[in-house]
Structure of C-type lectin domain-containing protein:
Amino acid sequence: MEMDEDTSLTKDGLAMDVTDMPLQPAERKRILPFDLVDFRRIKLSYRCATVCLGLLCAVLLVGTMGQFIYHASHRTSDNTQRNRLQSTHDALTAERKQLEVTLSHLTKEKDQLQQTCNTLNMSKNDLQTIYNSLENYKNKLHSEYIDLARGCLEIAKEYKNKMVKTAVQIRSMPCQTGWRKFGDSCYIVSTVKTNWTSSREACFAVGADLVVINSRGEQAFVNGLLESGQNVWIGLTDRLKEGTWMWVDGTPVTTTIWADDQPNSYNGNQDCGESVQRSSGVGDWNDEGCSAVQGFICEQ
C-alpha cells in the first residue's frame, strides 16, 4: 500500500493523514522524527516489493506460456511417435502371430520327421539283423566253398592223372581202318562232298567232329592228307559273331594260317572255314559260304 508524505502510521499500525491528526505540540514533536525517516524507508521498501512482485509475476507468466508452447509443440510430436509406435506394435504383433503359425507348422513337421526317423531306425535295425544273418551265411558258404575247392582240386588232380594215363593208352592205340593218326587224334578225309553243316553231322555219325587245327604242325599234317589243290571243310566258323572266328569245340583261334587277304566275307555270307591244299608250305585257310559243297576232314 502506497503512502504519501502526509500519511503516517499510528501505534496500532493504521495509516492516517498527518495533517488530520489532532496532536498536541508535545506529541507532534515526539512523532516527527519517525515520520520523516522511517516512513520514507518503509515507502521505498513497499515500492521495491511491489516491483519485484510484478517482475516475478511476469517471469511466472512467461514461464507458464513457455511451458504451454513447449507442451503444445511436443504434443503433436508425441502423438506422431505414439502412432508410429502403435503401428510398429501392430506389425510386430502380426509378425509374432505369423511366427507362431510357422512355429506350429515346423513343430508338426518336426514330429513327422521324428516319426519317420524312428521308423527308419527300426528298418535300419531290421536290416542290420538281416545283414548280420547274411554275413554269417556268407561266412558259412565261404567255408563250404573252401572245402569244395579243396575237393575239386583233389578231383582235378585225380582226373588229370587219369587223363594222362588215358592219353598214353590212346597214343599207343592204333586208329580205325582208313583213319590216319597224328598225336593223340585220328583223322579221315571224306569221300563224299556236302555243305558245312552236313559235314559236321557226318562226323558226328562216326563219333568225331570237323577237324580243329591247333598248330602249324597239325596244319602241315592235314595238308599232306589232301590231293593237290583240294579244298575241304574244317571246324572253323564265325556264325555266332561276324569277324570272330571260333573252333567247333568252343575254343578261340590261337594259330591262324589264313591266305592273303583272307578272311574277306565276300558278299557278307562267308561264315565257314576251309583248308586249301598247297603243294609248297603247309597250305592255308579261306572263308567260304557255308552252303558250298565240298569234302571235309573229321577228327576224333
Summary: Residues 178-299 form a domain with the Mannose-Binding Protein A; Chain A fold (CATH 3.10.100.10).
